[in-house]
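Q: How would the structure tokens look for this protein?
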Amino acid sequence: MQTYLLALNPTDSVISGFLPAAGRLGLSVTLLTDQPGAYGPPGALGPDVEVAACEVRDHRAVITHISRRGQPAAVFTNSDHLQAQGALAAEFFGLPGKNWRAALRTKDKALMRRHLAAAGAEPVRAVEILPGQSPAACVEAGGETGGVVYPCVVKPREGVASEDVVRAEGPAELLRLCTEIRARRPDAALVVEEFLPGELYTLETLGDGRRLHVLGGFHTRLSPPPHFIEQRLTYVPDHPAPVREQILERLALLGVGFGACHTEFVVHEGRARIIEVNYRAIGDHGDLLLAELLDIPLFDHILATHLGEPLPESLGARTDRAARIDSPCADRAGVLASAPGAVDRTDGDVRLTYRPMRPTGERHPLHRTNRDYLGILRTIGPDQDSVDRAADAFLAAQRWEITP
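A: Here is the predicted structure in token form.
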């Protein structure tokens, strides 16, 4: 069965998750990308994977490319930036897929806020600043969901990975930040919204359009303000029922329910409020950890939904283990002179998997996003105490040296 996978740059989710799953399902994959050279020479991804150049951000180019080769079995993407394009292509060919309106609603943070506010659910005061518009004029005028209140958060309307997401304490700081972001992203629309207090969590779901499974979620530890770098995710097998139901209600309003979805939200005084909805599997090795922790063929299930196969009533997920993910970050620009290599280790009942995210010898600026990750450690064990002890000991024993 010929399957088309839309992608931008290579990710661990695709290389270590979805492509092996496609092989297990007997699929022939054409990987459409605007960066074919990043995937290595022909055949580098295996005999059943073809890499083809395509302007994947344009759904018309995707549809035209696929149509030259006949009817596909599935069109799929795990990219934040390509969900609407993948959904439109799947719909064009009459294939199972996400609703393109839901994909657009969740990607566009301003559109998401307006949609939820119009439904009477979770109003958040927010202002949208379009390219070419004066940040000062927009902030003073307010927006459809109310004017700016402080503290607030400014972010790219369609950004990812906390890039250029910054907290501002007052008008002068906000306008300075908008000017700085606009200098880096002149064509990007910005959203300024009220800061939502509370502890940060995620909810991970998997659906087939009829049945929705909740895979648990994570409690996220962030870097100190004003930036929002995810430094640690501790697995939460089951959020309190009122919290879980609040988030599931919001997802239903947005039209989310097909394939994987990674939702970030805060809980404050028992009230859950969405930060953003990423209509794809959790990244930065979170999906790889879930598959191992729950002992389920997660990537196979996600692909199978796009082939039109229903999810089982029960996924048979394990519930007897704990886990966390740690992401050591660079704290300054420079050359990574020395760092630990890949590690796969079992200490008693605890499994540790460390993967470097940056090669030694390369110079990098300081991004204040997950681009600053030096590596990712996945730790799984029988209980949280043993997981925390093993992860803390491993990290304390490592050294990452950054030179000017």
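DSSP finds eleven helices and 20 strands in the chain.

The chain has a mean pLDDT of 94.

Upvote if useful.
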